[in-house]
Design brief:
Layout (H helix, E strand, L loop, with lengths): L3 E3 L15 E5 L4 E7 L4 E6 L4 E6 L3 E6 L5 E6 L5 E5 L4 E5 L5 E5 L1 E2 L2 E2 L6 E3 L5 E5 L20 E6 L4 E6 L5 E6 L5 E6 L11 E6 L10 E4 L9 E3 L5 E5 L2 E5 L5 E6 L4 E7 L5 E6 L2 E6 L9
Length: 300
């Protein structure tokens, strides 16, 4: 089976011919929220519709890390290495403390409940950025139907001051997000209003000022086939995006370099392993991984 589609010759240097796509585990309902826990040498990911967080360890396989998870989705680690999770059901951000207790960080903006936080990243200044679409309060499959109290938005939350700010409300369905290695650019996927027949679906790019202010966003790239959901970035600034046919590698100028072909639609992905050169991929109900000749951004 063909594993790669080389579109630009640069991509040929990113792949390893003797490192094929590996299936690590299967039988999940829909995989989301992959995050590498380097100090524990494990991968955490969500079996989202089953309301549980899973853990994968090399040579030990998969086990349940947390159940129920609050229908958690996106995950990241803060500047102290603590786990930050987006909870659909609880409509908030959660933080797992070092003693294992779980703290509710933020669940409201301007006195109104958040919708269903979807994905999250942490900037080096400690600020927490997350997307808040309507998706998972619109059905019972991934959290349960609930009434929305405010429009979809991209937020920044300061865990020190507890201040939450709308960074952009120009989205129908903000989803995955990732900073460039120098944090001067923020990528956000727009997956649109999926209750319509023709939703807006593309990747947005925003310039980021040193103080965290965002410039006006522009369309960076449009994934075909399918659309972009989760994102991650390598140390050279290439963007690795989920797609209907696998993972697409996109140069910082927006040019598609190549594809890792995956049997099922990809939802989310992250770099991990001791050298951060192993790309872990959530392919619908199956967990995959592949070694690459590139390293992901090592953060935290």
């Amino acid at each position: 089976m063909k594993s790669f589609d080389i579109i630009d010759r640069r991509f040929a240097h990113y792949i390893l011919e003797n490192a094929p796509l590996e299936e690590l585990a299967a039988g999940f309902r829909w995989i989301e929220g992959l995050v590498w826990m380097g100090d524990a040498n494990c991968l955490l990911f969500q079996d989202l519709p089953r309301n549980r967080t899973m853990r994968w360890i090399e040579d030990a396989g998969v086990s349940v890390y947390r159940a129920p998870s609050g229908y958690a989705n996106g995950q990241a680690r803060d500047t102290q290495g603590r786990l930050i999770s987006c909870s659909h059901r609880k409509r908030c951000l959660l933080r797992t403390e070092w003693d294992g207790t779980v703290t509710r960080l933020v669940d409201r903006h301007d006195g109104k409940r958040l919708n269903a936080p979807n994905d999250v990243v942490v900037r080096s200044d400690g600020s927490i950025w997350f997307t808040d679409p309507l998706y998972d309060i619109q059905t019972d499959y991934e959290g349960g139907c609930q009434a929305s109290e405010q429009p979809p938005a991209l937020y920044r939350f300061d865990p020190q001051t507890k201040r939450i700010v709308v960074m952009s409300s120009d989205f129908d369905g903000p989803n995955g997000l990732a900073f460039s290695p120098d944090e001067r650019r923020l990528y956000v996927t727009e997956t649109g209003d999926q209750t319509t027949d023709d939703p807006k679906q593309y990747i947005m790019a925003f310039d980021v000022a040193p103080d965290g202010a965002l410039g006006s966003g522009e369309i960076f790239h449009k994934i075909e086939p399918g659309y972009a959901d989760g994102l991650c970035v390598d140390g050279d600034g290439n963007l690795w995006s989920s797609a209907a046919d696998g993972v697409h590698c996109i140069a910082p100028d927006g040019k598609l370099l190549g594809k890792i072909l995956v049997p099922y639609r990809v939802s989310n992905l992250t770099f991990g392993g001791p050298f951060r050169n192993r790309l872990f991929i959530g392919g619908s109900h199956t967990l995959y991984a592949i070694f690459l000749n590139r390293r992901g951004v090592s953060w935290p």
